[in-house]
Design goal:
The chain is of the alpha/beta class. The protein is built from nine helices and nine strands. A nine-stranded parallel β-sheet has the order 6-5-4-3-2-1-7-8-9. Strand 7, helix 8 and strand 8 form a beta-alpha-beta unit. Helix 7 runs parallel beside helix 8. The two termini are 29 Å apart.
Length: 244
């Protein structure tokens, strides 16, 4: 677990009135479902020393997709709400970070491929964890204490967890796409109107976590989306100059 994560986790629990007990329950259930695999080592080989794209479902994703289609060989980590529009445009991410609340059809389409799912257990998705049984390549994560097959790389929302994952496995450069962390919710997000207020709170939390990560990571950080402290803002036309 990243040094300093526990303090931030407890702050999130307090702000959103979540219970660590439920997160621990979900963690135990996911651990009981998951089979032992070498997926973590596969993730390391994909990420370590590479330039990695982390893709969210913010408002700027629509503009990012045409560029992403041209960058076929780049390593892509997708938050699950971005998965359907990516698939619809022929973009298959190597890694999907998910708490299983995204488009289930998109998840099923990719679940039998070589793509690796990083499935997150928390108190609100216990009923969906059985979906993991149908996913070929899978890693389990938690936001509380890691146990057995379940790890904690840091992060809270699918998007920022993807960045924490890339940093944990020592990506050389991390570039954000469709990750705006503003007061608008992207059209690809599966957020209900009744959940809008909570979603916006989570976006603020995700942004603040990334700002914190920028102060401790060894990876170079860039964003093509809305500016975020600690990340260098770049234009699509300049991507070719920094991709290695």
């Amino acid at each position: 677990m990243i040094s300093g994560w526990k303090k931030r986790y407890f702050s999130i629990l307090k702000e959103l009135d979540y219970k660590e007990k439920k997160d621990k329950e979900a963690t135990l259930i996911l651990d009981s479902i998951l089979k032992k695999t070498d997926s973590s080592e596969k993730v390391r080989k994909l990420i370590e020393g590479k330039t990695v794209f982390v893709i969210g479902s913010g408002p700027s994703l629509s503009c990012a997709i045409p560029k992403l289609k041209k960058l076929k060989k780049s390593i892509k980590i997708a938050a699950d709400s971005s998965l359907k529009p990516l698939i619809d445009n022929g973009i298959i991410p190597q890694i999907i970070v998910t708490d299983l609340d995204g488009n289930e059809e998109a998840i099923r389409k990719i679940s039998k491929t070589k793509s690796i799912f990083v499935v997150h257990a928390h108190g609100d998705n216990i009923e969906k964890l059985q979906m993991v049984k149908k996913i070929k390549n899978c890693i389990g994560t938690t936001q509380t204490n890691p146990i057995n097959k379940i790890q904690n790389f840091g992060g809270f929302t699918d998007g920022d967890r993807g960045v924490f994952l890339a940093s944990y496995f020592n990506a050389k450069k991390i570039i954000l796409f469709g990750m705006d962390f503003g007061n608008q919710i992207g059209k690809f997000s599966n957020t209900k109107k009744s959940d809008r207020k909570t979603k916006l709170k989570k976006l603020v939390i995700g942004r603040d976590l990334l700002i914190w990560l920028s102060s401790i990571t060894k990876s170079e950080l860039f964003t093509t989306s809305k500016p975020i402290e600690g990340f260098k803002k770049i234009q699509y036309k300049d991507l070719d100059n920094i991709i290695t």
